[in-house]
Amino acid sequence: MKILLIGANGQIGTHLVDQLQNSDKHTVKAMVRKEEQVEELKQSGVEAVLGDLEGSVDGLVKVAKGCEAVIFTAGSGGHTGPDKTMIIDLDGAIKSMEAAEQTGAKRFVMVSAIHRNKRKYWSDKLVHYSAAKHYADRFLQASNLNHTILRPGGLLNEPGTGKIKAGNYVERDTIPREDVAQTAIAALDEESTYKRAFDLVTGKTGIREALKNI
Boundaries of each NAD(P)-binding domain copy (predicted)? Predict the structure, then answer.
């Protein structure tokens, strides 16, 4: 399966690029925001393309052509204001879904955030972020795309364990970014995750087994 990876230069995205490059099932087209990022990825043997989530759906359609699935792990980042969060995390995500539908990329894996489906867990300081994730996820669930929504807990920059806990509601905890990436890839062809959304933290069960039992 050829995957359009949106947010390839992010911290989860870099793990996804490495893992997809080493996959015997999938290939990757990495979408990034800057020309120098494209060149850097190409020098590493990665197919890369310039894409703009603040641009038009038509522009994203051109980027997505030839891809059978999308993994969306882009975000505005903690250093930006609420306006960028709404533009990237909400509208950019929705435009990506529209582009996927127009190009026939039926599979769409969204990396969201834990408990964003339940307003009572939203932090007042990050309500704009929570709202953006919440409504992007809801738009995806209402689309015609065969979606999977991952809602990981606190993200860690440490080696993955290969063990997760996943379910409709999981107590807030942490998870290495490497394991989030591995779970997103495993979900691509795991039928138990089709049209499902679930919380995701470090656990005691292997990723494939945990996904089969959500």
Answer: 7-190
